[in-house]
Amino acid sequence: MKEAGERAWLLSWDDDDEEAANRRAVAAWRRLAAAPPPGLVDAVPAARSLLVRGGERLDPGLLERLEVELGAGLPPPAAPGRCHEIAIVPGGVDLPEVLERTGLEAAAFWEAFLGCRFRVGFVGFAPGFPYLYGLPGELRLPRRSTPREAVPAGSVALAGPYAGVYPSVLPGGWNLVATTAVRLFDPGADPPALLAPGDEVLFTLGS
Amino acid sequence: MTRLAVLRPGLLTTVQDLGREGLGALGVPRGGAIDREALAFANVLVGNPPGAAGLEIWYQGPVLRAEEDDVILAVAGAPFGPAPGRPIRLAAGDEIDLSPAQGAGRAVVAVGGGLQVPAVLGSLSTSVAAGFGGVDGRRLVRGDVLKVGSARTPRGTVPLPPDLLGHDGAEVVVRLAPGAHAEEFEDRQRRALVEAAWEVLPASNRAGFRLRGPSLAREVHRELPSQGALTGAVQVTRDGAPIVLLHEGPPTGGYPQIGSVAEADLGLMVRVRTGQRIRFRGVSWREARAALAESEERLTRWTETVRGRST
Question: Which residues share a beta bridge with B282?
């Protein structure tokens, strides 16, 4: 555990597999969310870590124990939260290039993508933007060398080990392969984000 | 109901309070005023609780008109308007021009009774990037009418501590605690960070201050896993340019964090004037914590003085 602020600490896990480390981080986040300790202000899971902010009453010893407990043994199984089906329409501007670089025919690409069970590793970058684990190796591509200034809302995109969906118009360098009409972030809803860390996502063909 | 009409909106004028907490895991930034200390002091000047919603202004302030009698305003953070740092009482029809004095960058305007907009996700703050909160999730425009809550009459006037209107010198020195990825950098970049004087680029916004100075690019580039990033984190982009995250910055990021501006000095940093440079002075987290406690005590003491409870 590392000091990360005046009253903030970073818990992290170093499994070789980032996805495994993330399962530990999400499990730690869920523990804090299920029974918030006195003084907890916010907890933010990410790829391999959990950033915790607290007030004066938050006991860092408790966080240290949480890091050790969640780090012991095999990573916890991905206990799913809610499961969401998100209907998509294939055809992002980068799709032809993605097919060329993966060497896959469109049919094979979509069979692989639609067959994935994705897990929300974390939500960050912008309100409601999910980083989804579960992309098979043959669909992994680096992000574009030059990011776009405005990626349209609802773009379904790939970068590195992640799939993601742009909840609003944002700058971004991910490879755009499809679109969805599903609203990922609504500040008037409770909770405001459709997807939370640990949730499962299945993409389906929609119109 | 008391109201303030927006005759001219200024460049980036938004309703801000202390923001929203506990939503980082859904990607929602804390938001709220980037100079919380100035917001608190200005609010106390007009008789409000320290976190009441006011206006945050950047570079060019608004022109406002009181629609009813007894609207009280106070500006803190930088010299904008006719009487920065003092409560100003407006009668119905009075106009106030919150133009900046030479070089003033950012400030807050507290309004007695607080601005009243619908709460979104537990805060009145405007998230400009995400388009929610404040007035329709956007910066003010000409013709907006702001509702003001019922004011408590402030008792007398106590001058603001001078640093609450910014510094006069050529440089502003802010304390810098260790960053999460300080060890990803070589000595050369870590030294450059504290030895250089940094200029704030015009591309800065509520998400972050972009700084100009020597390149802090690492000699060996390595992709880092995304991790939580706090307000004040000094991130370094791949081309070596530092960005200090402010309150509307994303809760997670993939850039390495070379340092962390101490929370006690975030207000001081954003009060930097055009032409002034920022210089970082390294401290430990322990020192940063002590500085924060000190600044909180100063606000408490000053509040008591203003409210006439101390001698």
Answer: B176
User: Which range among A59-63, B206-210, B219-223, B271-275 shows the weakest confidence by mean pLDDT?
Assistant: B219-223
What is A2-71's CATH topology? Gyrase A; domain 2 (3.30.1360)
Domain A83-205 has what CATH class? mainly beta
A146 CA to centre of own chain: 22
The domains of chain A are located at 2-71, 83-205
Select the residue of A29, A41, A129 nearest B27 (Cβ to Cβ).
Answer: A129
Could B180 and A44 be called an inter-chain contact, meaning their C-beta atoms sit closer than 8 Å? no
B156 pLDDT band, cuts 50/70/90, is low
Domains and CATH numbers, chain B: 2-163 (no CATH), 171-297 (2.40.100.10)
Average pLDDT over residues B56-83: 96
Say whether B255 sits in a helix, a strand or coil.
Answer: coil
| Distance from C-alpha of A51 to C-alpha of A11, rounded to nearest angstrom | 6
Interface A–B counts its CB contacts (< 8 A) at: 121
- Three-state DSSP at A200 gives strand
- Contact of B260 with chain A, judged by CB distance below 8 Å, is answered with yes
Q: Give how far B30 is from chain A: nearest CA, Å.
A: 10
Mean of the pLDDT values across residues A137-154?
A: 93
**Rounded Cα gap, residues B165 and B130, in angstroms:** 30
Non-local (6+) Cβ contacts of A64 within 8 A are A1
**What DSSP designation does B172 have?**
E
Answer yes or no: are the C-beta atoms of B154 and B112 closer than 8 Å: yes
Distance CA A99, CA A113 (A): 12
Q: Token pair for residue B77?
A: 């953070």
Retrieve residue A18's tokens.
Answer: 């980032």
User: Cis before residue A191, ω within 30 degrees of 0?
Assistant: yes
Query: What CA–CA distance (Å, rounded) separates B57 from B78?
Result: 10
Question: CA-nearest residue of chain A to B261?
Answer: A5
The set of residues, in sequence order, having a beta carbon less than 8 Å from that of B78 and lying 6+ positions away, is B84, B100, B101, B104, B105, B106, B107, B165, B166, B271, B273
Token pair for A53:
């902010």
pLDDT tens digit string along B172-205?
Answer: 999 999 999 999 999 999 999 999 999 999 999 9
Instruction: Report CA dihedral (B219, B221, B226, B229) to the nearest 10 degrees.
Output: 20
* Chain A neighbors of B121, CB-CB under 8 A: 187, 192
Q: Are strands A83-90 and A200-205 parallel, antiparallel or unpaired?
A: parallel
| B289 with A125: Cβ contact below 8 A | no
DSSP 8-state class, residue B100: B
